[in-house]
Amino acid sequence: MNPALDPDTDPGVGPGARPEVRSEARHEARPGAPHGLGWLRQLAAATHQLADGTHQLVAGTRQLFEPLQCPGCLIRVDRPRLCDVCSAAIAVLPSPVRRTVDVRDGDPLVVTALLPYEPPWRNVILHFKEDPDRVVREVVQGVMGRVMREVDPMSGLLLAPIPAASVRLRERGFNPPEVLARWAAKSFGGEWRPRLLERHDYHGPLRGLGAGERQERLQGAMSPGPDIHHHRDASPAVILIDDVLTTGSTLAEAARALRGAGIRRISGLVLASAELGRNSD
User: Fold this and answer.
1) CA-to-CA distance for 151 and 19, rounded, in angstroms?
2) What pLDDT does 104 receive?
3) CA 243: distance to chain centroid?
4) Options 2.20.28, 2.40.128, 3.30.420, 3.40.50; which CATH number does 94-273 get?
5) What is the C-alpha separation between 43 and 26, in angstroms, rounded?
6) 162 closest CA partner among 239, 59, 68
7) 10-residue block means of pLDDT along the chain (281 residues)?
8) C-alpha dihedral over 82, 85, 90, 91, to 10 degrees?
9) Pair 46, 54: CB distance under 8 Å
């Protein structure tokens, strides 16, 4: 019930109500009440936290009944951890690489990839995308922290995760790029903006498709979200966050949507880069 119409709190409503005395003070915002769309952002943040907590609970319950495996090579281990071989392999990290992605009707997009989508990273990232447990989250977060020291500072930038299709969000219970964007914002600066983009049509998974088929399937799949209205006139710099870069079609469509809304300074950051036709999922 609207607090302004609650008979327990409003003397102008209910039996024995007194005539309403109109004054400017009566219409002032109550202390602590959210202004504008602030309550929507608070609700969205609380919803994301609840979804993450639920997913971690489900993952933890599954571990009680499934054999423990190293997330890097899938061999049996005695407790949730990377095996010694995979631990040694990830101790030596590659330097970030930059790829250029073509964007329809616009300038190419420069994307920074933190890791190669190859063993043992490939299995770790697949675990992170589909069913991350505590070990996988800690590994990915730790790798991001070490590798991103070589990436340009993010202070003052807007971090926009690639939005998930609603069907994929229901299947997974969370959006991997959104988790990455939150980690990056918390650890390296920048402003997390999960609603800078919105996802619309979903025409099935992209796995196994070539560049042209991916572009056709993604055309018109994204548009500017509600957060765009707060930044349209400020000419902000935006970093698009995704998990794996294959052909770049997803990032290109996201960049096209933001450029259509007047955002010009856009780049990309992905956890890993894969070559099409080789370890591309």
Assistant:
1) 64
2) 84
3) 9
4) 3.40.50
5) 27
6) 239
7) 44 45 43 58 74 65 70 90 92 90 90 92 90 86 84 82 89 91 87 91 69 74 87 80 93 93 92 66 46
8) 110
9) no
- Of 267, 276, 281, nearest to 100 (Cα)? 267
CA neighbor of 225 nearest in space, from 186, 260, 252: 260
Determine contact, residues 150/95, Cβ cutoff 8 Å: yes
Long-range contacts of 170-173 (CB under 8 A, 24+ apart): 172/55, 172/129, 172/130, 173/51, 173/54, 173/55, 173/58
Tell me which residue of 220, 276, 237, 236 sits closest to 99, measured CA to CA. 276
| Residue 67 in tokens | 């054999």
> Which residue blocks in 151-279 are alpha helix, DSSP H?
166-172, 176-188, 211-218, 249-260
DSSP percent split of the chain into helix, strand, coil, nearest 5: 40, 15, 45
Q: What pLDDT is attached to residue 66?
A: 67
Q: For residue 190, what are the CA distances in angstroms to 63, 104, 137, 155, 240?
A: 35, 27, 21, 5, 12
Angle at 262 (CA atoms; ends 256, 268), nearest 5 degrees: 45
Q: Phi and psi of 134, rounded to 5°?
A: -60, -40
Whole-prediction pTM: 0.71
Q: How far apart are CA 269 and CA 231, in angstroms?
A: 20
- Terminal Cα distance for the chain, rounded: 48
Contact 190, 239 (CB under 8 A): yes
What residue ranges do the domains of the chain occupy? Answer: 94-273
- CA proximity to 264, closest of 255, 275, 252: 255
Residue 74: count other Cβ atoms within 10 Å of its Cβ: 13
* Strand duo 191-192 + 158-161: pairing: parallel
